[in-house]
């Protein structure tokens, strides 16, 4: 069963939802039955290339107190901790994620699921755990090289608009499915807008796998002849 989902590297619930999904698959021992296929989605396509500061600094400048900021971020930080992730939302630095998605599309074009998965995880980690700016070419190149990507290809990508079309195609496809926010999962017959807790995801996966196994099978012909059933 293939799970298609749209995600943005600056979306905390995308990181949390994906972590819960992967843990659910592992605990159900269904790694050989489920294939994950992430698609690009920018929450803020017009975001700047340079951050105005950390989220906390931006909110402080807008008049929020440190206590108010901590309270606003607490729900997300606690959900991340339950998913086995350690980050502080208030330390994130918001920028455009277009170049990060273009880099992701380059990895995806290699049809190496392990590389694509590692790169996506590293991009999430850089944003939510390290407070990195995902529009910074130096940050993206460092991440790509750490995951074994080719330096020449990565530099050529970051100095051009290569893979823009793939990002836009993913976002256009999202529109066909009515995606208005991420994460957004297509799991068997189910559409799941938003992150689920791990136990909820396990239940949903079990139901989806049952549906997948119970698909109707009609009469057909093949190299060995045609079905003749009474």
Short description:
The chain has 230 residues and is of the alpha+beta class.
How is this structure best described in words?
This protein is an alpha+beta fold and 230 residues long. It has one domain (2-213): 3-Layer(aba) Sandwich (Glutaredoxin), CATH 3.40.30. The chain has nine helices and six strands; from the N terminus they run βαβαααααααββαββ. The chain has helices at 12-27, 55-61, 66-82, 98-109, 113-128, 137-146, 151-158, 164-176, 198-213; strands at 2-7, 35-40, 184-187, 190-193, 221-222, 225-226. The strands form two sheets. The protein has a four-stranded mixed sheet. Helix 4 packs antiparallel against helix 5 and helix 6 (137-146) packs antiparallel against helix 7. The chain is globular, with a radius of gyration of 20 Å. The protein starts with a strand and ends with a strand. The model has no long low-confidence stretch (mean pLDDT 93).
Strand and helix map with partners:
Elements: E1 2-7, H1 12-27, E2 35-40, H2 55-61, H3 66-82, H4 98-109, H5 113-128, H6 137-146, H7 151-158, H8 164-176, E3 184-187, E4 190-193, H9 198-213, E5 221-222, E6 225-226
Parallel strand pairs: 1-2
Antiparallel strand pairs: 1-3, 3-4, 5-6
Helix pairs in contact: 1-9, 4-5, 6-7
